[in-house]
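Reopening this one. Same input as before:
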Amino acid sequence: MYVVNVKHAERFYLRMLLLHVPGATSYKFLRTVDNIIYDIFKQVAFHHHFLNSDEEWHHCLHDASTYQMPKQLRQTFAFILCFCNPSSIGLPVPTGNAIEVQLHNQDDEREEAEQRISSLNREQLVAFETFTRAIGNNNENDSGFKLPVHLLYTSVSSMRPTSPEADKLRQAVLIIIDEITMLTKDGLRCIDSLLRDLMNNDKPFGDKVIIIGGDFRQTLPVVPRGTRASVIES
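Same output, byte for byte:
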């Protein structure tokens, strides 16, 4: 069954009428109550007495909890409180069992790490030692890539080629970019352009070894020709 956000009032009340008024054959039929034709669906729902109880708002929040993120769910709840005049209503009670958070045990993790390292083949071990050596030499870039706050296609890094940060990047054996899903394509393009300039090398990322990581399930959905607001809202 399709769901409708309560913010889209007319569509929301139209859906309510379609669910509760049997035998609807036209918009005129739906907008008619006791031989009176009303202009908007909210008036129709009111005269059908569908708004006399909070049951519909409970259904609305229950449906919203299946597809909205927490922030959106709170906004829907606030919208109902401000504009729908409920008598008594609360946020839906979470279902399921809470996830138990296991605290990290350093000794157990160290033992597991040793077991995994011992299972590496020669090529994997060489790569692992290269990574750990690069991290151990503190060649990471603590100050970031000096990217602008608002990233556009024409954006460039503000890092000066003669700065200490630029020297760190030139000396870096390995560059790790975590939470890559939070970076837009223009941000990645800026980093690529910066490293090419610093290394005087036209290969991707100035021929540096780049490792990216992050939870790709957090990537926002693709909205064809969508604005920033429509992408975030989805």
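So the earlier flakiness isn't reproducible anymore. For the record, Strands lie at 32-33, 36-37, 174-177, 209-212.
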